[in-house]
Design goal:
This protein is an alpha/beta fold. The protein has 12 helices and 10 strands. The chain has one domain: NADP-dependent oxidoreductase domain (TIM Barrel), CATH 3.20.20. The strands form 2 sheets. An 8-stranded parallel β-barrel has the order 3-4-5-6-7-8-9-10, surrounded by 7 helices. Strands 1-2 form a two-stranded antiparallel sheet. The longest helix has 16 residues. Bound molecules: NADPH dihydro-nicotinamide-adenine-dinucleotide phosphate (NDP). The site of NADPH dihydro-nicotinamide-adenine-dinucleotide phosphate has 31 residues, from strand 10 and helix 11.
Length: about 325
């Protein structure tokens, strides 16, 4: 795609559902796009820019990044900055762009975890890499057991007050840490907008209290890895494709594909087929049936996968029989 060739689809806002994020004024698309994988320096611009533009054309207004996304770390932000410059910059006010700091980003004591020093420096670096004046959401990517939570939340609040971020968010905080963070941010006058947590049919820890806490506190939940990195799709039903995440053996491994898991995936796939859906569509529809889930934060390595995932919005409601059958498979 050449610079300035892109014009967004006229009908982009007719296709997507937008959900209010907790008790904030902000609405997020029910499906958001994450750039953890597939947007790094090892990936092809033609492919990932096509995915990003297809997403925006489909009403996906929310793009999620972090300082360390790549590989190499930082390259997803650089590449997203290029897509912004080439195509999406006229639409900046229609977009919610997030980034995070919390995992190892640079050497020495100030490039990791949750100090004010690290968060502030990292956000400045992220803005430079993306060529943005501000991000919409700035997250503490993980709780830091050795930094007072007041310091980490104070840095988020100040980033908002400085206009470098519009909202503060937290990720990977447990229920107790979340309550503490929410209280401090509220007292600081920069309420916590959103919690980004791992949630899928195969990873249900948020149901043990966090979802209730977030609802009570008026904080949204965005579910990351909603397809369990591709396990909850048809990707591995007939072996491990050479270009798949499991074949790369970094964040997902061939050894994760145990016979028991593959049997579960096949049984879930059969239920999806009976509903006229792919497994990926059903896995996302299953999360979105709970209105406390503001958005499902998917990844995609191709435009075809993105299109498939978007169809989750058009799926039929679940019958109680289907829900029971899914629970029985997941408990096996
Ligand atoms: P998913 O669970 O959606 O997995 C995405 C992967 O699944 C794709 O890269 C692709 O893998 C495969 N896939 C996607 N759609 C389909 C489909 N329709 N059919 C077949 N295969 C499909 O999410 P991710 O694990 O990628 O995480 C999504 C986002 O969540 C990240 O980009 C990031 O923004 C956020 N995140 C946040 C974390 C945090 O700590 N806050 C941690 C992890 C993620 P393949 O490459 O094999 O084609």
């Amino acid at each position: 795609m050449e610079k300035t060739d892109y014009t967004a689809a006229q009908d982009r806002y007719t296709k997507m559902e937008y959900r209010r994020c907790g008790r904030s004024g902000l609405k997020l698309p029910a499906v958001s796009l994450g750039l953890w994988h597939n947007f790094g320096s090892v990936d092809r611009y033609e492919n990932y820019s096509a995915i990003a533009l297809e997403a925006f054309d489909a009403g996906i207004t929310h793009f999620d990044l972090a300082n360390n996304y790549g590989p190499v770390p930082g390259s997803a932000e650089i590449n997203f900055g290029r897509i912004m410059r080439d195509s999406l910059h006229p639409y900046r006010d229609e977009m919610i762009i997030s980034t995070k700091a919390g995992y190892t980003m640079w050497d020495g004591p100030y490039g990791d975890w949750g100090s004010r020093k690290y968060l502030m420096a990292s956000l400045d670096q992220s803005l430079r890499r993306m060529g943005l004046e501000y991000v919409d959401i700035f997250y503490s990517h993980r709780p830091d057991p050795d930094t007072p939570i007041e310091e980490t939340m104070g840095a988020l609040s100040d980033a908002v007050r400085q206009g470098k971020a519009l909202y503060a968010g937290i990720s990977n905080y447990n229920d107790e840490q979340t309550r503490a963070a929410v209280e401090i941010l509220r007292a600081d006058g920069t309420p916590c907008l959103i919690h980004q947590a791992k949630y899928s049919m195969l990873e249900r820890w948020v149901e043990q209290g966090l979802l209730d806490t977030l609802e009570a506190e008026g904080v949204g939940l965005i579910a990351f890895s909603p397809l369990a990195q591709g396990l909850l799709t048809n990707r591995y039903l007939h072996g491990v494709p050479g270009d798949s995440r499991a074949a790369k053996e970094v964040f997902l491994h061939k050894s994760d594909l145990t016979p028991e898991l593959l049997a579960k995936i096949s049984s879930l796939d059969a239920i999806a087929a009976s509903r006229g859906q792919t497994l990926a569509e059903m896995a996302l529809s299953w999360l979105l049936k709970d209105c406390r889930v503001t958005s499902v934060l998917i990844g995609a390595s191709s435009v075809a996968q993105l299109r498939d995932n978007l169809k989750s919005l058009d799926g039929p409601d679940f019958t109680s029989g289907e829900l029971e059958a899914i629970e029985a498979i997941l408990k096996e």
